[in-house]
Records
---
Amino acid sequence: MMGVLSGKAVILTGASSGIGKGTALKLAEASARIVFTGRDGPRSDETLATLRAMGAAVELVRLDVTSEADWARVIDTCLSRFGRVDVLINNAGDAVMDRIEKLPANAMNDLIGVNVDGPFLGMRAVWPHMKKQGGGLIINVNSVAGQRGNVNGSAYCGSKAAQLSLSLTAAAEGGKDNIRVVSLHPGFTLTEGLEETLCTQPQMLQPMIDSMIPIKLPGRPADMGDAVVFLCSDDARNLTGIEINVDGGMTAR
């Protein structure tokens, strides 16, 4: 994939670890120019150092996704460094999982702030610049949880379902300006956080995978990165308003 995104300027949120970091590494391999954000200071700095060691043109900007002022600063950084914004990847997100009667009253509002308001503000901030330059791509990283209900997921699934509707509506609006919008849905993915959670009970991992994933392979952050690189490439120029699942067949059942 070397060079397939050469010259393209990408904004990626939530890249300090997990799917975001895996995506950042794949973007760098494809020669994209990257402005990324992350909440975890040390991990964000580690991602920055790794990308620079790969020879990537990259900037790190601190971002609260619910802040219009922060979003303006991210966009300004990308424009001043690279002169344009070709791709926005709204990857930053949050989750709270519990039975509906045990969730705090503000659980839904808190998740809506990060999972819906954040992508909305990002799209709103980048939209006029993409429109002016003749088009662009927005990828909203969702979850299979945004497509169906899950036990303990009323707040999380609800917020992700709202994000999916936002993505589809934005795609319908963006077509006339050549602004594509795609919703990316990871399934069971082995991120650092999940591996840390499972490390005390590794015997649970394979039975969990066998029961959930038809192809019996867990997703890895690099798998999401590969899908993102394809979507950012010219080969995907006719893809918009769609849901792309990278889930090993989880949602085929």
---
Amino acid sequence: MSIGCAAVAVRPRILNSDDAWLAELEEYRRPLTGYCYRMLGSAFEADDAAQETIVRAWKNADSFEGRSAVRSWLYRIATNVCLDMLRGRQRRARPMDMGPSQRADGDLGPQLPENLWVTPIPDDRVLPPDGNPEELALARESIRLAFVTALQHLPARQRAVLILREVLRWQATEVAELLDTTVASVNSALQRARATLAGRDLSGPPAAEVMSPQQQKLLDLYVEAFEKYDITALVSLLHDDAVMTMPPYNFWLQGPGEMGRFFLGQGIGCQGSRLLVTAANGQAAFGSYKPDPNGGWTPWAVQVIDVAGGRIVGHHNFLDTDLFAFFGLPPRLDGSNV
């Protein structure tokens, strides 16, 4: 099933020569993608924005006079690309932002456009491949679904200021230069952004703990229960306030009871599914494949799992099969890749 995302899932990279300038630009692709993702809330759009940033830098190399660092120049371009993309847009959200929870037998309603949702992004597209544990923990926290969703409530320039100052740890003077404004204006925007986020629900698991031994044991039990479709065992792993979402449907459930009834009711088509491990938004994630009547299993959803306090607190199912290629997941499963 696909909701028709227009973006190409896997894009060719610019670098196809020994050009040292292109090689230098390519080194920034991952951090630029992370910055654009926090700005835009969409993996596909972030990939497009990072690509556009590098293309513009490549085409306009003559205008780079070396008075500022390549990093600052690229982030200025990326910021302008993101601001252009955000102009006139409705903010992206999660189902919990759109209304109350439903009952397990409730109407899913119509599929809504992709541009309404915060979508997941693979860790390997945005997280640094190395770095100290503290930096990696901050990077993971700052791409959590809850945090990225909260960022979408900020005006675009406030969003850029907060990300640059508090996530990327830029100095106020650097941000002021990038945005062609004053340090006082940057500090004021940061204060307003902090005040807005203080009123948002950012509760959720510390991403840095997702793969601790205790959390890994819980995830192993979850995979076993889901693939065996042992719903009694599955719901025993859920926190009392656990939520389940299913973008592109404006439909979400809360509590083990409702979730269990859903899996045994209108979600019964998940029975016999297989899960492949991946990683998204600094959290545990799986590619979920449903049984194909003709044999094997076909892509269904990318699941992002929130874990905290020894229980699953969030079960987020993104029913966009374009994400499978983006995550590097196989287009189907058979006996050879299960």
